[in-house]
Design goal:
146 residues; mainly alpha; 8 helices; 56% helix; elongated
Length: 146
């Protein structure tokens, strides 16, 4: 009986490396595709966190007092106000999708509730609260005022 030839070193290892690289490439491509397509986690979307829609707001210099401060908040933290609900009725009456929309037109100049939501959200953001907590606090405070 003859001896079986030994497998050449590295041949099996090469297939393991190639297979591992292929699996990693698939994972990376799937992740990138998910992110580009607006995947829930990439966009920060959940049932309680709608997609963020940033829009231009009016210049705070066009307003005075508390309204100016609220328009300034919208200018400084649009990504926060875009994730805040509004409870004054502007969603139905004006088609506003978030508190940020209140400052894209003159509504934020005349609505105390919209101003309060923007200023409260700004203060909580300055304190470092996460968006989810800010939104929860806003809901708790203003949903009952309607």
């Amino acid at each position: 009986m003859g001896k079986k030839p030994k497998p050449k070193p590295g041949k099996n290892n090469l297939w393991m490396v190639v297979g591992g690289a292929a699996i990693m490439a698939i994972i990376v491509l799937a992740t990138l595709n998910y992110t580009k397509s607006g995947g829930d986690r990439a966009a920060g979307v959940s049932a309680d966190n709608p997609p963020i829609s940033l829009i231009a707001t009016l210049d705070p210099q066009n307003f005075t007092g508390r309204a100016r401060a609220a328009y300034q908040a919208a200018k400084e933290i649009p990504e926060v106000l875009a994730q805040m609900p509004c409870f004054c009725g502007c969603k139905d009456g004006l088609g506003h999708k978030s508190n940020l929309y209140c400052f894209a037109d003159g509504h934020g100049n005349i609505c105390d509730m919209c101003q309060s939501i923007a200023l409260d959200a700004q203060e909580m953001h300055r304190k470092g609260l996460p968006i989810e907590q800010i939104r929860s606090n806003i809901r708790t405070t203003y949903a009952q005022i309607q």
